[in-house]
Please model this.
Amino acid sequence: FSVSAAPTTAGIRFTVKELGDDTPSLLRLKPGTRMLLEGPYGVFTAEKSAGSRVVLIAAGVGIAPIRAILEDCHPQQQPIRIVRLRNEREFAHRAEIEDLVRSRGGELHLIVGPREWFSARDPFTARSLGAMIPGIADRHAFICGPAALESAVIKGLRKAGMTSTNIHLERFGV
Model:
């Protein structure tokens, strides 16, 4: 599970994917249920970009924290959102994300297909990323997804000229 909206005084929203022993009980909770939370762990927030232009890259359950960062972005940050999906049915919060991207003057790129498809076409090479992301070297990148995706994206971003200090990762698990 992960925070999937910017926290407010009214509450906090989580997106839960049923994995492991504990998440099934979370899925049975009713909205408004009082809970005791521990953490937060990590510092994966839009503040790291210091108002710079951003690119947000997510796959799988990584969509949730990236959605929360998108909500905190401002139009001058020209957010570019890249989402890797096996199929379009797994795109959690799609309508919200499309509205957020549009209201912030950003772009949304979907990369859809089975993993085997990517052995022939790597969408995360420096060239591919550069075609999707204008001014790539001067942006801040926020990445959340499986380790293999993170590695491929980081490699492509670095080859495209982005510094490692502008690359921010959210790794699941405490």
Notes: The mean pLDDT is 86. The beta strands are 2-3, 14-15, 54-59, 80-85, 107-112, 140-144, 167-169. The first strand starts at residue 2 and ends at 3.
